[in-house]
Amino acid sequence: MTYYFSKTIEGPFDQAVARTREALSKEGFGVISEIDVSKTLKNKIGVDFRPYLILGACNPALAHEALKLEDKVGTMLPCNVVVQDAGGGRTEVAAIDPAASMQAIDNSALKEKAAEVGAKLRAALALL
Fold first, then answer.
1. What is the SS3 assignment for the chain?
2. Is-above-0.85 flag for pTM?
3. How much is the pLDDT for 104?
4. Which residues in the chain come in under a pLDDT of 70?
């Protein structure tokens, strides 16, 4: 089982980030955290790295349902979505497969909820 879904799209990085935010929003996700990996690596260790952004995506209703099923599932939230420069005017967008990450938890209802979240993340990627 792979641990992520991905799609490579044509266009500049900044445009891909905006398109990703819009697609996530259409599937009920908000971006509640953002990590600019390239900026962090430059500031902390002086390394130049390609544009690479981690968006912490959360669907509040589904997160609430998951938290009711398993109170420690918050250790695995939010769903990370990576937007990275793939070179040649292309950008890759990858999202975690929640069903893969939830394999560590023995709770069948939670696994069903993770599959639902995964379907919404795949739908968001399809919108790109």
1. CCCEEEEEEECCHHHHHHHHHHHHHHCCCEEEEEEEHHHHHHHHHCCCCCCEEEEEEECHHHHHHHHHHCCCHHHHCCEEEEEEEEECCEEEEEEECHHHHHHHCCCHHHHHHHHHHHHHHHHHHHCC
2. yes
3. 86
4. 1
> From CA 15, how far away is CA 18, in angstroms rounded?
5
Q: Which amino acid is at 82?
A: V
Measured CA distances, 9 to 31, 53, 63, 102 (Å): 20, 15, 28, 28
Q: What is the CA radius of gyration of the chain?
A: 15
Give the integer Cα–Cα distance in Å for 117 and 80.
12
CA 25, 29, 30: angle at the middle one, nearest 5? 85
Tokens of 35: 């990590």
**Lookup result for tokens 């993770």:** 114
Tokens of 26: 């259409």
Residue with tokens 């497969």: 97
What is the dihedral sign for C-alpha 104, 117, 86, 51?
Answer: negative
